[in-house]
Description:
Chain A is of the alpha+beta class and 783 residues long.
Amino acid sequence: MSEYDVINSRAARLDAPDKVTGRAVFVDDMSMPGMLYGAMLQSPVAHAKILNVDISEALKLPGVKSVVTAKEAGLINYGVSPARYDETLFCSDRVRYVGDEIAAVAAVDLETAMEAVSLIKVTYEELPILLTVEEAMAEGAPQLHDKYPGNICAEVHQEFGDVATAFKECDIIKTTTFTNKRQDAAFIEPQGVLANYDLSGHLTLYSSTQVPHYVQRIVSMVLGLPMGKVRVVKPYVGGGFGIKAATNPMELAACLLSMKTRKPVKMNYSREQVFLFSRARHQFVHKMTTGVKKDGTIVALEHECYLDGGAYSSFGIATVYYAGSLLGGPYKLQNMKYDGYRAYTNKPACGAHRGHGGVAARACWEQQLDMIAEELNMDPLDFRLMNMMETGDVSCNDLSMSSFGMRECIEAIKEGSDWKSKKGKLPKGKGIGMACGFFVSGAGYPIYRSDTPHSTMVIKLTEDGGSAILYSGSAEIGQGSDTAFAMIAAETIGIPLENVRIESGDTDFGVDLGAYSSRQTLMTGHATKEAAEDVKQQVLDVLSKELNVAVEEMDIKQGRIIFKNETPDYSVLKTAYIKEHRGWTDQPEGAYLTFNEAARIAFLVKGPIVGTGKYSPPILGGRFKGAAVGTSPAYGCSAMIAEVSVDMDTGHVTVDKVTDAHDCGKAINRTSVEAQMQGSISMGLGEALFEEVKFDDKGHIINSDLAEYKIPTILDMPPVDAIVVETNEPNGPFGAKEVGEGGIMPVIPAILNAVYDAIGERIYELPMSSERIYMALNKKNKK
Amino acid sequence: MLLPKFKFHEPKTEQEACQILTEYGDKARPIAGGTDLVVNMKKKLMSPEHVVSLSRIASLKGLQKENGFVKIGACFTVADMIEAKDIRENVNALSAGAAALGSPLVRNLATIGGNLGSARPAADLPPPLMAYGATLILKSGKGKRNIAIDDFFKSPGTTECRPDEFIAEIQVLTPPAGAGAGYINLGARKAQDCNIVNVASFICLNKSGVIDTARVILGCVGPVHLRAPAAEKILMGEKPDKVLFRQAADAAKTDCLPITDFRGTGEYKRAMVGVLTQRTLEIALDEAKKNN
Amino acid sequence: MKELINLTINDQAYEVAVAPNQTLVDVLRYQLELTGTKKGCELGDCGSCTVIMDGKPVNSCLVLAMQAVGKDIKTIEGLETEQGLHPVQKAFVEKQGVQCGFCTSGMILSAKSLLDKNGDPTEHEIRKALSGNLCRCTGYQKIIESVQAASKGVSK
Lengths: 783, 292, 156
């Protein structure tokens, strides 16, 4: 039995009834009187000088209300990290990828807006294009950004311990290279916006975003408005996975068009534009050399990595750090050297995508560890058990495992999959493989340098005393955060979940950095708990005075006031409440004082009962350059076993079964934790087997739709056994930490290792398409 | 995504449809389920001035077994083909082709006529229909004509169907005793996928167990679906077994002209032609034995 | 240019002016304010625009509004009755077959169509029936569990 009344349960999501009935409002479901429709002109060429932009014909088209270009928008640089603001809203002199934004139009309807876009005449002088890291880093390559010579957007050089010396102690030294492919997040809701600059000069932007706060800042900065006059509201969002965690040009363009026309302006990306905007997973090329002693101790890792960044930085500077720092765990590794490079190319920018920076690195390393275990003649599970970190361990790059249920995860999947009876015993064409992973529970620092709290929460009790309303800038994007915060508040105050309501995703409600880096449960959860404690304290304070009972002698549980010692005479309070509510049908009954009554009394005495909470991470480890990327108040970890079948003639891989375990600290909502694990597995499975954004030699995306960019269908997904492992995270609210991204870490390498088990060949390049497996089998047969 | 502008016609009879198509000729395009045409129009690959819906013509929606033929109206949906007992029991490889097409949602709209008329080299219905030696009935103001499906496809997106004509019916001769057919498609995913390679095979055994008819059809490895003459030649007059099928499969690989594109290399597609030829022949043989 | 047509949606008759190049999903969403039907790809690839037309789930982004005349159309808004949520909707709430909610309308309509035909489907039948509806959040596991729970509810 749980010691909790609300959390740690399988409570139904608060938003589910709206979503199953079609009532939940997403941004494209909104409309406003007098609303205009926007459309954007995007570059058809991958790299060119802009010689001229002629909007005169577009302006003449009846129904067109405004056409804006760099001339109207100005040239304020923006981006994600202030260290790499390398974008402007519209290109003025140069386009750098197919899709780069040149102009936007607002018109009375979408048809007119699209036609106007087709009437804008741009004269280009085409420039040579760079489509690969090699081309970008070659000597004499054309430079995409004057500020970043050699087309190097960012580079990282780190060494912890002494790798060269450590290798001398090693008995096995193994080097492998590995590459994934550029991925698309393929959330089902394309980005959309509705901007409304009202007649008093206030701008409200409704957007399908994960980060209302960051969007508010960038919109203010780029359009030159005070932040207090910009409000960003997130309606329901149809998934984001990192791509919606930064401002997009459509948000800025719609705002600018609304300011120009003084009308609401609506815009949407088509599915093709979702691909053109991209900002999803980079293509990484990893070269790793791992040194191990013959007893199985992992001693050193030397790691070199190249990222194909696309035309702009987006999150890339963080990505290139994460690609290195996230190998600091989950194993005890004392020596680690990392050299990472992110190159600019003439393709859409890549950015943050579930498992930011760490997914391909994890796949490369966990496969290599599997190879080493085989060479050592050790069970790969035992090899990992022997090397894994435990609670209290600190990695060589100063990541502190304040709770770490790695052992429990490994043991859970071993048991759950019947590993012992399968590993090494399956027929040809069948395979089983495992891998581990870990991830941050929230970035330790905001994207811009600031002492801002990462999350704030305001809880107001309704004046009747019946309900608590949460006001937060946090972003429910499908993961279930609204429900989690409501549960935390209900648990903390001591009231039933149905008496809690949440309003979120609105910058008017406070600062919250939003839904990225798996941060909200821990960080917003903390702020929620603090605000709820504040509310509870205020109610009990009033009660204490009214009843002359010390606060410490009271508590609130399940909506009732608990008197720990003697029960005082509260009949006066009850009588007053009853008198106030004559004729009401829901008068509190029973021989106890309800929270309703107590909160009503508190309001009568004090006025509004409003509690506030905030969260700032504690000072975190690492003083070296780049230490800010990877440090987190807590780390979740996971382990997964995949079982596969390979068609030995066609090379087609089917994942038959997945057994997965994840340490999420204390599960706030157990069903939601499993749901995040299962979702992570399908995204990882897609990247492992199918997904790849493909370009032609002119830099056009060939497969910019969901027919040819293949995410898993329900028939491609195996049954998943999601085992929730709980630890007590001291830095988390009620001991909770992340699950949203860490869940994806072991997926690809577990499948890689299972495929090897099935076919006896290692695959070093994703996706594991039928053709790639067939070619590997062919090569093997020829040997 | 907006569709280009067009005028929309919904004839209620075949005769009306003939009149409209005669009037507008190559400015018109027939639509049935719309699962190909609407996509192509949204992508601006096509923008006919007139779109002529055949969906309200009741006579195009039938399915009959008659005089040894399974006769399928052009507007019979792919989903209904999977359900249809007459198809499953007589021409099962066509059921397999229907089940492989798109997704359940697409299959509820898509029609057999549309899948043939759009002439996509990766389409799922042409290989089994070619394996069964189907005939298409084309109609126009000038009357009707029958055309063997082998002669129907010209190049990707173009067919023997003239602008003033429409596909009215597909007729498949019910295979005799001793016949069997198989269809397999290979894609990346297990649903709603564009095929990398698809193959259908048909064999008929005579009383002494010798193959007296063989048709092997290869999809995605040429501008249109291809017959595999070398493979068929190897099969003809022989008793079926694994070795023979392997030889036929190897021959089929020389019967095709796969190109390398983003779905796969020519080398892989050619190899898969071999694998799928072998496997479809095995399915065909199983069925042939059962039908004896 | 536009023409008045009559549509029957959720057993209600609508008269609406449409142009030939308008798709059913756009008319539902932007003219009739039935925004529970979503648009994820507009090319028939994702299934978020699923509606039930004459008893069969279809991609409403591939149907011309004019083609829908005379058809019996059911959207997600038409599933609730005076008795409350449809059993499939209830099951999606209880089993958390919902995350972001964008594919949910389509999933539920495909599931309902399946259960109307087959009250006790196997897991594979469920997977086949929903294979035109993409979901990027759930990994489909809880969607399957929801449909299974609903099928038990229906067959009871």
